[in-house]
Structure formats: structure tokens, C-alpha cells
Automatic annotation (TrEMBL):
GO CC annotation terms, alphabetical: nuclear inner membrane
Subcellular location: Nucleus inner membrane
Lineage, top ranks: Eukaryota, Metazoa, Ecdysozoa, Arthropoda, Hexapoda
This protein's name: Nuclear envelope membrane protein
Keyword Phosphoprotein set for record: no
């Protein structure tokens, strides 16, 4: 094998490794952030003025706008065409996943809690409530991961190339395979402050407006689910 080809393969594997590690790290942090409404409260200066709270709300909306703009920009035909060029095709999914993780990291790092305005606050010191929210979120995250795996996580992460036209078509019609799971996580929380309300509203609206699946998409999802089920049975 020529040295140039070895270098290309090695570089691709390095980029893939960095992408997987960075994505895994981001997903873990995102899980904590979404399922723990008090995630950013530690050390946060409470008692802010309404002016500061309004500024925090503006910052949070700007952060979410960056995430949505990044998602929407990469979905444009012109950008997809550029990423499908011979030199970038092998890195297409890595670029998409890395930029998505980066935009999420920006949200996680610079998110501003607004604890002055609270819609509801359920006391999770009561064991029944704590276990109810915990089990519900575990179930919702499980649904999300199963939905992602059923769509072939290897292609989504760029471990293997995007070969399925049905998968490409499906992702043109939705932003995430587990809309219901994320709705549960965003809205069924014990503590809903103003910043979390904005987060839940904007992300729910974005996912809903981007959801445009049809019978062909649903049949593909059913086919993938059956295929994964058979693969798991085969491994037993």
C-alpha cells in the first residue's frame, strides 16, 4: 500500500477517533444538563436584577440560535454538495457530528440560569417523586439511544460511509430520530425556571417544525428496527 494511502487511512482513523470521543463526552454532559435542571446553579450568583435576567435570557436564546443555525446551515443543498466533494466525502459525517457537538458545548458552557422566575418546583426529596422523574428520564434516554442505534449509528457517526439513500432521505425530514423522547426530557422535569422554559419551547418547536416524515420514512424505520432485532438475536 502506498505511503500516501496509509497516511489518508491513518488520518481518517484519527479524525474518527477524535469525533467519537468528543461526541461521547458531549452526549454525557448533555444528558446531565437536560435531566438535571440545577446543573448550572452551583456557584451561580442568585438575586440578579430583572435587567440581568433579561440579558441572560437573550444570551440563552442566542446560544440556541447558534445551534439551530448550525443544524440548518449544514442541511442546505449547497453545503451538502460541498461536503460531498471527493476530498471531504469521507469526513462528511465527522464534520457534521463534530460541529453539532461543538455547538452543544457552547450552549453547555455559556448557558445562563434564571432561577428568579420559576414556573414549578417539585420537591424531589420525596422519594416517590425522585424515583418517578429518574425512571421517566432513564426510559426517555433509552428510547433516544435505541432510536439512534436502529438508524445505524455507524453511519451517523461516520464510522462507515453514508450509503443508505433512505437514511439520507429520513434525515431530510427530521432533526432527530427520537422527538418524543426529547419532549419528555425537556418538559417533564421537577424544576422549570424561565431559562429552562425557553430551552424546552425553542427546541421542541424546532424539532416539531423539522418533522416531516412520510410512509416511506416510517417503513424504513420499521425495517431497520426489525433488522437490528434479528442481528441481536443472531448474536445470542
Amino acid at each position: 500500500m502506498p505511503s500516501v494511502e496509509k497516511f489518508k487511512i491513518g488520518f481518517h482513523l484519527l479524525v474518527l477517533f477524535i469525533t467519537i470521543v468528543f461526541t461521547f463526552y458531549t452526549v454525557v454532559e448533555l444528558m446531565i444538563f437536560l435531566s438535571d435542571p440545577h446543573y448550572k446553579f452551583h456557584g451561580w450568583n442568585k438575586g440578579k436584577s430583572w435587567v440581568t435576567a433579561s440579558w441572560s435570557l437573550f444570551v440563552n436564546q442566542s446560544l440556541l440560535s447558534i445551534f439551530i443555525a448550525q443544524h440548518s446551515l449544514l442541511a442546505l443543498p449547497a453545503v451538502k454538495g460541498w461536503l460531498s466533494s471527493p476530498n471531504l466525502l469521507v469526513f462528511q459525517r465527522c464534520i457534521y457530528v463534530t460541529l453539532t457537538s461543538l455547538s452543544l458545548q457552547i450552549i453547555l458552557k455559556y448557558w445562563h440560569p434564571i432561577p428568579e422566575v420559576v414556573l414549578w418546583n417539585i420537591n424531589t426529596n420525596v422519594q416517590l417523586y425522585w424515583w418517578s422523574f429518574l425512571l421517566l428520564h432513564v426510559f426517555a434516554w433509552t428510547v433516544i439511544y435505541i432510536g439512534t442505534i436502529c438508524l445505524d449509528v455507524n453511519e451517523l457517526l461516520g464510522i462507515k460511509q453514508y450509503k443508505s439513500e433512505n437514511l439520507k432521505r429520513l434525515y431530510l425530514h427530521m432533526r432527530h430520530p427520537s422527538f418524543i423522547g426529547f419532549v419528555f426530557i425537556l418538559w417533564i422535569v421537577p424544576y422549570m425556571s424561565l431559562d429552562r422554559l425557553a430551552l424546552a419551547t425553542i427546541l421542541s418547536a424546532y424539532m416539531y417544525l423539522s418533522w416531516n416524515t412520510d410512509d416511506r420514512d416510517r417503513k424504513y424505520q420499521e425495517l431497520q428496527s426489525r433488522r437490528k432485532f434479528y442481528e441481536l438475536n443472531y448474536l445470542k
